[in-house]
Amino acid sequence: MVIKYQIEVLSDEQVHQGDIFKSVQYYDNFVEQGGRFELSLLRFPYSIILTQECDLNNNLKERKSIDETLEIRKQDKYLISLLCAPLYNAEHLFTGNHLSFLKIEAAKKNSEQRNYLKSNREPRYHYIEFDNIIGMVPMVIDFKHYFTVSLHSIEKNLQQRACTIKPLYRELITQRFSNFLSRIGLPEPQIQQ
Amino acid sequence: MENEEIIIDDAMYMEPCEPEDVIAESKNLLEGIDEQYTDKVIRIILKGQLDGN
User: Fold this and answer.
1) What ipTM was estimated for this complex?
2) CA of A54, closest CA in chain B: separation in Å?
3) Where are the alpha helices (DSSP H) in B1-53?
């Protein structure tokens, strides 16, 4: 049985660990030649914030206590960016076409692989079914596709927050993410000729 | 570049569309995209001219 993840819809001014935002943009490339420029960005339909709650909370508290008129501000909890990971529509990911608009075809998952993934035994992925108060379809976080986004741009678009995954569920996600990042990839064994 | 401002209203297209499939020409370009492409990751390319050049 798949556990439904409990979510809440927040309207406060803080970005939280476990927030799911719509339409998060990753700035992919910028080139400029002779005054003409080209800016390429990736827009993810849904992304989850993986940055620790305490870092986000302390950063906001500190900024609120700062005198903005000072030329040099004392700030120890400054954050450059937030860590995010995309959530893909599970059905798209299972069929391997979730990146089709980028002209990328991923491997299709067979039923055995789907069940393995849905039970969160595949370290790279995290399957989520939502406690369905806002109509979110089942989604899969791909930890390999993590990226960063500026705190400023996320805070400017707080209205894009679709929901927030509740504590324990969100900690499970970040723990699995950190486990994925800290894995040790051993070299392929040499095949003796 | 005079004001260190970048104008992004010159031309814009979205892959896999062709460049002539220009969706809009305004500074609110990015907001208009969501209605058509909401369920998959997309690449957006903004082209423009640096102000003052």
Assistant:
1) 0.85
2) 30
3) 29-33
